[in-house]
Amino acid sequence: MLKVIKFIFVVLFACQLSGCMGGPIAMQIASSIATRIADHAVANALDVQDGPSNRKVERKDTDPDDVWMAMATSGFRPVDPNAKALEDATPEEISVQIQQANSLVRVEVFNLLIGDEKTAVLEKARAIGALNLPDRREWPYWNVATGMTENDKKLITFLIPPEFGKLPSGAQTVVELASPGDLNIARYKSNTLIISHN
User: Biggest alpha carbon distance in the chain?
Assistant: First the structure.
C-alpha cells in the first residue's frame, strides 16, 4: 500500500511540472516509475514460478581448466626474422619480397592525352600485360595525362580515374608509381593549381 501512495504522490508531483518545459520531464519520470514497477512485478513473478533459489546461484571457486588457461594466457608472440630464408633465396625472390608497395609522388599535370595518343598508350599497356589497366569498355571514361614529378623532375604518363574528371594543366595530383610493366595511377586529387610566370 505504501508503494501505491508513493506512486500517486509522484504522479501528482509530475502533473504539477506539466508546463512548457515540465511536460517532457513529467512524462520521463512517469515512464521511469512505470518501468520500475513493471520490472519488480516481473521479478516477483519469476521468483514465484521458478523459486528464489534458481536466481541466486553461488559460484564455486574452482581451478581453471586448460581452455581457460589458454584463453587467459593467449597473446602475440614475438616473431623473429628468418635470416636463413633470405640467405637461401635467389636475387629474384628477394626483390619480389622487398617490393611490396609502390611509392606515391606529387605530380604537376602538363596535359591530357586524347584520341589516338590516349588509345596508343592504353593499347601499349595492354600489349605488355599491365595488371592495373581498366576494362577496354571503360577506356572512354578514364583519362591519360603526362606530368612532372615534384621531387626528381621526371616526366611520367599516368591514368586518371573517372571520378577525378578532367584535370587542367597545372593541377597537382598524387600518383602511385607502378612497378615496371604497369601504368602509374592518380590516387589523390589536389585542388591547387601551379601557375608559372615566365
Answer: 95
CA distances from 147 to 104, 111, 136, 140, 171 (A): 14, 7, 24, 20, 10
Give pLDDT tens digits for 69-113.
666 666 555 556 555 555 665 655 555 444 445 688 888 988 988
Pair 122, 159: CB distance under 8 Å: no
- The residue whose grid cell reads 602538363 is 110
Q: Choose which CATH entry (2.40.50, 3.80.10, 1.10.3210, 1.10.260) describes domain 103-193.
A: 2.40.50
Q: C-alpha cell of 118?
A: 590516349
Instruction: Report pLDDT digits (tens) over 112-157.
Output: 888 899 889 889 888 888 888 888 898 889 999 999 988 888 888 8
Task: Tell the residue number behind the cell numbers 516481473, with chain if given.
Answer: 42
Burial zone of 61 (CB within 10 Å; 0-12 exposed, 13-18 middle, 19+ buried): exposed
Within a 13 Å sphere around the CA of 187, how many CA atoms are in the beta-carbon half?
13
Cα-based distances in Å from 194 to 22, 172, 173: 61, 7, 11
